[in-house]
Write a structure and sequence with these properties.
Shape: globular
Strand order of the largest sheet: 2-3-4-5-6-7
Strand content: 5-15%
Number of helices: 17
Number of strands: 14
Distance between the termini: 49 Å
Mean pLDDT: 93
């Protein structure tokens, strides 16, 4: 049983209980273990904390040695956003690929297998799935993290994902409420705004969250976005109208409400993390996610003290903080008692199966698979913060495995197409792009390539909005490692 440090009063314990901090390193630092003894109830893990499944299991065991009911959370969406396989690329293709297949049973199986892998490592809360409807093609942060642009499709796959993940005993945290899809700004950098009217929001943004709630999602994550039709003055994370009146009241949600990362600039640059955390709890949030960037004991102390001071000044009702802390403990109790569903064997390759089914090849003429080593040109955009730049992507590694001698280079900006032609030195070119429709320089590079080499193969690993072109155009609907493998198999004529 967990034993709390003597001298830690109830108010201070509750303030620690509502925090979900991160840390650096692959073992738990002393300060984190000490805070667990004082009342901290959750820990957030990121790619920097993970070296292998065995190391991760040892880390979570170390945390539970200090507090047996600790919530260990992770941002593991599969696809582009992976923490378990941050340095290798994900074994799961991601939401957009699953939406392209549109087989809800496949989505459930993928989420169940992902959940089993998390549970085996001691992780019991996953900040996933994304229930955002990617209605804005210019969205810089959601994109392939969404199941798609069709509301009904997103709703049914969100529900299937929640069901699958939680069948493994891992709590789902459906995000980013009330919906981050219709934005052209990344909330890591600034405050996005959605100007849709209330009727559109109800029909489009909220529908997948209703489906997630009906499926029993144990947690929901708020978005740092301003939605004037709901609250013209406060971003969703800090809005009582959004979190309490809408999510709790109108939608009838009773589980844990978690904020998105409080150090994201949409909050930190406008309110500061201390003030933002107080306002979030007052608005109805139960858990403060912090630690993607600020990952130290000083951050935990600052947020704890801000919450305690707000209660003592009368700004934050003590009952609201106590309620939030109890909601955290309630989720911890669920994870401790959840019994994974009995499933048949043979799903360890389900991610690759899904990636293969998601492929959409378009050929301008009958395509002959390559036998000679090509030159793979990755036309590389700047990665958004949620994805990060640690995780490899593309088809080069998988194509080199199938066709030895394959070489590759990464290109960006003006003149990229000409640079690729010079580097290829006459070899067949495989051009790999992500979201060509969002990057004019990328479209120009493809124009230059195809003018000189009409036999160029184009692999689109983002949202396939641009017109298919090239001797062969393969839309993968994601950039996970398995998506690259599936595309490479088609190019080399060695489909599994």
């Amino acid at each position: 049983m967990t034993t709390f440090a003597s001298g830690t009063d109830t108010l201070t314990r509750d303030a620690l209980t509502v925090l979900q901090p991160g840390f650096t390193g692959t073992t738990a630092p002393d300060w984190l273990l000490r805070r667990l003894g004082e009342g901290l109830a959750s820990v957030g893990l990121f790619g920097r904390n993970i070296a292998s499944p065995e190391q991760l299991a040892a880390l979570t065991a170390q945390l539970r040695g200090e507090r047996d009911d600790v919530l260990v959370a992770i941002d593991e969406e599969g696809g582009d956003v992976t923490r378990l396989e941050v340095r290798a690329g994900s074994s799961f293709p991601g939401n957009h690929a699953l939406g392209a297949v549109d087989d809800v049973e496949l989505t459930r199986e993928v989420a169940a297998e992902l959940g089993r892998r998390l549970a085996a490592c001691g992780v019991n809360l996953n900040w996933a799935p994304s229930a955002d409807v990617n209605s804005n093609p210019a969205n810089p942060v959601i994109g392939v993290r969404s199941f798609g642009a069709d509301t009904a499709l997103v709703a049914r796959h969100t529900a299937a994902y929640v069901t699958g993940l939680q069948s493994a005993g891992v709590a789902a945290c459906t995000k980013h409420f009330p919906g981050h899809g219709d934005t052209a700004v990344d909330s890591h950098h600034a405050m996005p705004r959605i100007d849709a009217d209330a009727s559109t929001l109800a029909d489009r943004e909220l529908s997948p969250f209703r489906a997630a709630i009906a499926a029993g999602s144990r947690a929901v994550m708020s978005a740092h976005i301003l939605v004037p039709a709901l609250d013209p003055d406060h971003p969703a994370t800090l809005s009582r109208t959004v979190l309490t009146d809408l999510l709790r009241g109108e939608l009838g949600y009773t589980g844990l409400i978690v904020t998105d990362g409080m150090e994201m600039q949409a909050i930190a640059a406008t309110y500061g993390i201390e003030r933002g955390s107080v306002l979030a709890i007052a608005a109805g949030a139960d858990a403060i996610c912090v630690g993607g960037g600020l990952a130290d004991d000083e951050t935990v102390r600052r947020l704890r003290d801000a919450l305690v001071a707000a209660v003592r000044s009368g700004e934050l009702p003590e009952a609201r903080l106590a309620e939030a802390a109890e909601n955290v403990r309630e989720l911890a109790r669920w994870t401790a008692t959840a019994t994974p569903a009995a499933e048949s064997e043979g799903r360890t390759d389900i991610g690759l199966v899904a990636a293969r089914r998601a492929l959409r090849p378009t050929a301008s003429a009958p395509f002959t698979p390559l036998t000679e080593a090509p030159f793979v040109a990755a036309l590389t955009p700047v990665a958004n913060i949620a994805v990060g730049d640690e995780t490899p992507w593309g088809v080069a590694a998988e194509l080199a495995r199938l066709i030895p001698g394959t070489e590759t280079g990464s290109y960006t900006g003006e003149g990229a197409g000409r640079a690729v032609l010079a580097a290829a030195e006459g070899r067949r070119v495989v051009a790999v792009v992500r979201d060509e429709h969002r990057h004019p320089w990328m479209a120009t590079a493809l124009d230059d390539l195809l003018a000189a080499r009409p036999d160029t193969i184009v692999v689109e690993m983002g949202v396939p909005q641009a017109t298919a072109r090239g001797a062969l155009h393969i839309a993968t609907y994601g950039a996970a490692r398995v998506c690259g493998r599936a595309a490479a198999e088609v190019i080399a004529g060695e489909q599994g």
